[in-house]
Specification:
4 helices, mainly alpha
Length: 122
């Protein structure tokens, strides 16, 4: 289980870093259902994602940072749920984005649960 969680953490870190870089180079207007998100919030989410990436990989340096992994995973899950709520409020009908965000949120919740209960790193 530990190896599976490390793989998921690594994939989640790569995914989240790519998302942060994408947000820095694209505005919230790029994804029409998210266009109601204020630009400052959009940029703040990029910073949050970079912090989450750091929290996901810090346990590679020292296991004492293992408690940061669930916090990072929950933060990313919260962001995905926020995107889902904004999407639903926009009235958009193409649910591909929604499914994607909810799947990422479920992976995040599994990683957090795994690091809290199944195989903690501390």
């Amino acid at each position: 289980m530990n190896i599976a969680l490390w793989i998921l953490q690594a994939l989640l870190a790569i995914h989240t870093l790519m998302g942060a870089i994408w947000k820095f180079s694209n505005s919230e207007q790029t994804v029409a259902p998210l266009s109601s998100i204020p630009h400052r919030v959009w940029m703040g989410l990029s910073v949050l994602e970079i912090i989450a990436v750091i929290f996901l990989v810090l346990p590679l340096i020292s296991k004492r940072f293992g408690r940061l992994v669930p916090a990072a995973a929950f933060a990313i899950a919260a962001e995905m749920i926020y995107f889902s709520i904004v999407f639903l409020a926009s009235g958009a009908t193409d649910f591909n984005h929604l499914i994607y965000w909810l799947v990422v949120a479920m992976v995040c919740i599994f990683v957090a649960y795994g690091r809290l209960r199944l195989h903690p790193l501390h």
